[in-house]
Amino acid sequence: MKLKKSFLLLCFLSCTLLLTNYLDLFDSCDKNQLINSSNRIINPHVYNYTLNSLVCGENKGKNLLLISLVCISPQNFDQRQLIRETWANISLFKSIRVVFLVGLPSNKTINDLLVLEKEKYNDIVQENFIDTYYNLTLKTIMGLKWVSEFCPMAKFTLKIDDDVVVNTPELIKYLQTLSYTENYYMGSLQKNARVRRNKESKWKMTYDEYQPKCYVPYHQGPAYILSTDMTGILFNLSQYNPLFKLEDVFMGMLISQTEANVFQIKEKYFLDSEYSLYYAKKLNRKNNFKLFAFTQHQDFRDIWNIFYNLSL
């Protein structure tokens, strides 16, 4: 009998501890998420265009449904060409345009080749900061600035990484059905995302950099959509906030300072790059609802071919 009581007491204490930790987890995530915005400019964007594109034309995108900003490394020449031939093929999709966002490479030869590539395709935008992974936030700020200056009349802006395949036919149809084209932020929403302190993590964050246990809500960086009216607002806000090295989290911080409508469409993503091709093969014309596929390089064209053929 005593053993049974002891066992029940142990179970009760264990459950109480687990529940306390569980509630503490969500309590810590819902409160004290740090946003150090200022009432004065503390992060001026002091960089200048070294390569620019007028791909949206003199009317600044008035007839465009979508302008896509592809964050990509300068040396990824083949990947840019692959994107031009697949989901960003403007001969197939007249209502979209794409620009590739790059910083300065450390190798002058690569930059010389970039200049030639830009002259041929007129779709590369570059500013004079060094292109590194942790300058991805700068690259996105550059993209916001560029759209607000050179393509503000396009209805929507897609920020995307170079390893994501877009189901362009379905995305166009989806955007055309939306009744709202302003004050809009859409993607794969992350809520209560825990800050990683592991020194080995690509996304590690020290307490000096960010103290709370969790981030503000944000859409995953590889692919999210803004109504284009938001680009100028967010670019302006970025100058009143300290630069944050995780680009998608930084965007969430800026969005939290606006009255943007935040839409969750995680169900429209293939999020696991290792299995995207496997699941893409299971799509059919009646079940073709995915808009984005995070993918491995060797699967990129195959996934695109599936998306495109389903639209025919």
UniProtKB/TrEMBL annotation:
Gene Ontology molecular function: hexosyltransferase activity
Signal peptide: 1-22
Compartments reported by the entry: Golgi apparatus membrane
InterPro entries: Glyco_trans_31
Gene3D superfamilies: 3.90.550.50
Membrane topology: Single-pass type II membrane protein
Single biological process term from Gene Ontology: protein O-linked glycosylation
Enzyme type, top EC level: transferase
GO cellular component: Golgi membrane
Keywords: Glycoprotein, Glycosyltransferase, Golgi apparatus, Membrane, Signal, Signal-anchor, Transferase, Transmembrane, Transmembrane helix
Keyword flag Membrane: yes
E.C. numbers: 2.4.1.-
Family classification: Belongs to the glycosyltransferase 31 family.
Name assigned to this protein: Hexosyltransferase
